[in-house]
Amino acid sequence: MKSISLYIDNGSWLCRMHPFTKLAYIAAAISVPLLAGRLWLFAVFIALSLAVLASGHLLKRVVPLVAFSFTILITIFLIHGLFNQQNRDILFSIGPLHFYREGLLYALHIGCNVLNMLLSFAILVLSTKPSELVEELEKRGFSRRMGYIIISVFQIVPQMMGTMNTITDAQRSRGMETEGSLATRAKAFLPLISPVVMSSLINTRERAVALEVRGFAAKQKKTYLADRTPRRGDKPITIVLLALIVLAVIWRIVQCL
Predict the structure, then answer these.
(1) pLDDT above 90 (res 22)
(2) Which residues on neighbouring strands pair with residue 94, listed in sequence order?
(3) How far apart are CA 130 and CA 147, in angstroms?
(4) How close are the terminal C-alpha atoms of the chain, in Å?
(5) Residue 27 has pLDDT above 80, yes or no
(6) 3 state DSSP class of 196
(7) pLDDT confidence of 1, banded at 50, 70, 90?
(8) Contacts of 77 (CB under 8 A, 6+ apart)
(9) Which of 7, 8, 132, 239 is the most exposed place for a label (fewest CB within 10 A)?
(10) Alpha-carbon distance 123 to 114, whole Å?
(11) Angle between the 19-36 and 130-139 helix axes, to the nearest 10 degrees?
């Protein structure tokens, strides 16, 4: 059966780690630098996320995501480096364009925050099976409807990519030009995107009907085929990550006082 998620089961230690440990890492990676307000902490967690992905043999999978994010980050640097309202000191100039230190520093904080969140979430998305994550949440009393929303978020991007590839191949077999100049691609945009949107709406309706047929809204207690117990290192790692969050909160309170 074709997978409709970004999860890759490569047998690494990262894939075997309990989902809640990865959620704790996401919480720590995002909250600690923001609460502490130190730029170097963003760099520490970015480097740590890259090391974790590399040790889990998932670094190649995250490269396209990082490359795509850089197009957005470059735009942020250009806008704030040139037009931020706090700009005072010129850092460097390129012809008539003057880039200011305040705007570039502000853009650097945004860029590091975005990259940090992207890499930390990539650890969870690429190494965790969505159904296992939702199952563990439901075992802890999480709502089934919210669990369904979470698993849909995990699946929507790869599912639409698969649908887009199928429709593109179908349109090419009918003689449509989908590659070439910008005008050719623009001409093929509507014939390609319209079936994707319609297919997504139809799939949503069919999935809702299928869920009701299988008793999704039933009030009876569910049973589970697998019992995923935490591994030996999951508990200490989770405790350390939660302790970092608490320390960051205390540091922020002390700084405010």
Answers:
(1) yes
(2) 97
(3) 10
(4) 57
(5) yes
(6) helix
(7) very low
(8) 104, 107, 108, 111
(9) 239
(10) 15
(11) 90
Q: What is the rounded CA–CA span in Å between residue 178 and residue 191?
A: 10
Phi/psi of residue 70, each to 5°? -65, -30
In whole angstroms, what is the distance from residue 68 CA to residue 118 CA?
A: 11
Distance CA 25, CA 123 (A): 9
Q: How far are the Cα atoms of 10, 59, 108, 114, 122 from residue 65, in angstroms, in the given order?
A: 19, 10, 19, 12, 9
Q: Which residue has the tokens 């996320």?
A: 49
Do 85 and 100 touch, CB atoms closer than 8 A? no
pLDDT digits (tens, 9 = 90+) for 169-193: 887 887 777 777 777 777 777 777 7
**Closest residue by Cα to residue 113 from 20, 21, 58, 35:** 35
Rounded Cα gap, residues 112 and 34, in angstroms: 11
141 Ramachandran zone, left/alpha/beta (phi>0; psi -120 to 50): left
139-161 tens-digit pLDDT: 777 777 777 777 776 667 667 77
